[in-house]
Specification:
Elements (H helix, E strand, L loop, with lengths): L1 H12 L21 E7 L6 H9 L14 E8 L5 H11 L5 E6 L8 H18 L6 E4 L4 E3 L3 H10 L4 E8 L1 H5 L3 H24 L18 E4 H6 L10 H11 L4 E11 L11 H14 L8 H22 L6 H11 L5
Parallel strand pairs: 1-2, 1-4, 2-3, 6-8
Antiparallel strand pairs: 4-7, 5-8, 6-7
Amino acid sequence: MGDERIELLANLASSLPQKSPVLLVPTPPLAECEVCVIVPVRNEAQTLKATLSALTYQIDLNGNKLNWRRCEVILLANNCSDNSAEIARHFARWHPKLVLHVVEITLSPAEAYIGKVRQILMDEAYRRLVYLGRKQGIIASTDGDSQVRPTWVAANIAEIAAGADAVGGRIYTTKSDRASLNNYAKACYLREVGYRFLIAELEDYIDPDPYDRFPRHYQHYGASLAVTAQMYQQAGRLPAVRTPEDVAFYQALLRVNARFCHSLLVKVITSARQTGRATLGLANQLNQWTTMGIDGQPFLVEPVNAIALRLQVRHQLRILWSGILDGYQPNIAQIAQMAADLGVNVQ
């Protein structure tokens, strides 16, 4: 019977639009599993124990210990030159109640980037949830330099149960890492956070999304990103772009009308280190701000009038799209006016 279950998992691999290179975890998931947490890891020896500890001690929204038979973790250590995989395996031995699958692989240079690694992991989580028949099962992503808050799993479950197809968690940076930044980079970071929150509030006034109302945040990044198995397949999987793969996936979700929630209940703390793994990640941005400070460059943002105009046109497009879904056929004059407002070619 065990061999038949493994064969079924392998067969599910070929059901994806593009077959993933490997079946990561041959051990079938527990029957009670509802959430599959994926953790891409590359040289995270310094932070990995904290990451896994945060996942181990999860509680529900009433403060009770979470039943970990409802959840599993797949950790993929790829192309590591440190002992990240051994740290994870040692952690699994000392915490047997945590359903933790540790996989170690070496990808070719052409594939050893975060977009590909996260896609491999999310494909694996999708297969395992579909194997259990859980279309509303949750694929939940975090990172090896991040620590989810104690109610992270439960809050994601609650948002999906309330009607969301996908959830972006609120991502904070550690105080110690922020303290290590130079003053200009730190100021830019805080300005960026405040600016993005103000835009999120403005969006709710001008172009409200019924499934993502304010108060909410603005982040939809891999350190805290959850999606149902059904919507993952419908969106065409996570795109294997080099970076930012999480933003590309968010855009893919919007294209298929996913109900996306930027939840303030779902929280994670991540590193504000300045040596990162992704070309366009937070570390790269912090380094740019540091350089700007040295060179005396000002912190510039898009003017509010331009943002408001874009949101007004987006609201018109949202109404138009809703009508198209109901069978309404727009005329070219409507589209031409919106194109003129944005200063783009109607063609």
